[in-house]
Each structure stands twice: as structure tokens, then as C-alpha cells.
Amino acid sequence: MVTAPQRFLSLDVFRGLTVAAMILVNNPGSWDYVYPPLAHAKWHGCTPTDLVFPFFLFAVGNAMSFAMKKYEAAGNTAVIRKILTRTILIFVIGLLLNWFPFVKWTDGALTFKPLSSLRILGVLPRIALCYGAAALIIHYLKDKGAFVAAGVLLFVYWFLLLACGTGDPYSLEGYAGLPLDKLILGENHMYRGEGVPFDPEGLLSTLPAICNVIFGYLAGRFIQEQGKTYEMLARLLIMGCVMIFAALCWDMVFPINKKIWTSSYVLYTVGLALLLLSVIMYIIEFRGVTKGSAFFTAFGKNPLFIYILAGVVVKLYAVIRPTPDQNLYSWIYENIFRPIGGNMNGSLLFAVFHVCVFAAIGWWMDKKKIYVRV
């Protein structure tokens, strides 16, 4: 635990807003009652919820633009060791979080969750892989080389889907990454949210996701180099608009799709991230309006730690049973929030309540100058 370095307040707010949104969309009171904007697109397309994860990867890149300066000063060997150590640490934490709480209810009794069915990938493992790959690319190729590498990755991914896919290469059945994940990971270690073994954080779709981190890094570098000027802000806005326009054009032949993380989806989400970041910077850095920012900086100062803590707490709900046939998660929704707001609003209130709880924890940690670097 160390004291946080000086940083742009707007970047902390952007990062904190993203973490708060991740907790909000991951924890409805009931998955049967979720407002459409708070649910993922069924396949092609993009909802506000589909922006949350790529925005977080973009924020990882922002933070990297500050950290890499310190890493580089330590020498090549130290940089590689630091990158690999952090990558492995986040990946292992992700695996443990997938396995946590290590037990489950079976026929009225708690039994250990077998490693034979442990999901290997997921949000944290993808963050780890994208961080590690992006950091190495940036370290060896520097800024311009990293920009070129990101472009190459986006087009290579498109080529791989067309060359290796079957039937409709952008469908679940024809997606080239599906057989690759089955071969390397095994069906028992894959997510089944589509009703069949399919991992939206799969190996092949990690390639374009790396670009979200690279573009976030380049945006962070640009902001630092240009300083707080209206020219910098205008160029951020223009680049965001250009990327969104390019994404919508590409969407006509390569659909925007989060679940297979298409290249058009990368450009679209990076473009929107640039626009949102520009608005936040204008309000905070240029207009000096900071009222309410503390709520989001509470998340932004300890982003990964609070996200992991939220995952741990909510997973514990599943093994605590106030009644023989109901876990704590559903009990809280059914007995507290549903009576207050009904099905839909009660489900939303459940999620908002948890956002506020973890905001309070983050605020306390920031007040005590406690910053956990994962």
C-alpha cells in the first residue's frame, strides 16, 4: 500500500466512473428484471453496458502512460520483470475470483467447486493479458510503433475471422475463436452464457482488445505532452469523432459486436471513450467544476481492488443462506429492494445500493491514503 502519485483528476473520474458502471451492470437484484440499457446486446450492436469493459481497458492504458515512465527509468530487465509480474498477478487473482468462494450448494450441502469446471478466462484474465501484451508492445515499439501495431492487430483479426471462420464468420457458430478456445481451454473451462460453451473473453478476441489499452495509453501520453490546452481538447474530440465515423463505416462489413470484440467495436468504443474523456476534462480541468467528483475518484484511486472486492462480496452472497432454499443475494432483493421499488426498479436499486457501498469503501481508503496496487 503506497501513497498515490499526482495525476489528472479527470482521468481518475473517468476511471472511477467506469468501475462504478461495472459494479452497477454486474449486480442487478434479479437478472430477470434488467432495463435494456443495462443489459448487453444479444449479438451484433452495442448498448451502454457494452461500453463499460472497453472503457476500463482504455483507462488501464491511461494509467500505463504515467507508470511506464517510472518503469523505463529502472532499465530493460526491470521493466520486463515488472510487466510480467503484474500480468501474472492479475491473471491469478482472476482465476481465484472465478473459483471463489471455492464451495457451492449441492443437494442442500456445501461441496467444493471442482477445478475440472473452473472457468479460465474472464474479465480480470483479459485485463491481465491485454495489459501485458500492450505494455510489451509499447516498451519495445514506443508510441508510433504501438499505434501501427494496433492497426495491424485490428486488420489481422478481421483477416483471421474471414479466413478461419465457417459459414457466417461473425455468427456464434461460425466464429473462428470458438474452436480455438475449445481446443486450448476445453469446454469445461469456458463460459456458458449463450447456452453453449463460448467465452466472450476468449483467446482470439483478446487480440483486438489489446488495442483498447494501446489507444488509452496513446491518449494519456497525448494529454500529458500537450497539457491543459484547448487545442489538446479539440484534437481529442476530433479524433474521437473520426474513430466513431470509421467504426460505423466498418460496421457495414464487419459488425460492431462485443461478444467477439470486433475491430469496428474497438474503434467505436475508443472513439466514445475519447469523447467522454474530453467532456469530463472540459468540465473539471477547464471549467474547474469538481463538485461530485469525489464519488467517482473513490473508485478511480483503487480501481482493480474495489472491482475485485465487489466480486468477492457478491460471490459470498451465494453461499450464505438465510433460508434453506434462498441465498443472501436473492433474499436481500426479495425482502428489501423489491418491496420498495417493485421488480424493475427494485432490481436497479439493489445495484445502485452496492455501487454506493463500494464508493464509501473507496472514499474511506482515499481519506486514509490507502492505495492498493494490483
TrEMBL record:
Pfam short name (any one): HGSNAT_cat
Annotated organism of origin: Chitinophaga solisilvae
The organism's place on the tree of life at top rank: Bacteria
Domain Heparan-alpha-glucosaminide N-acetyltransferase catalytic: start-end pairs: 7-138
Name listed for the protein in its UniProt record: DUF5009 domain-containing protein
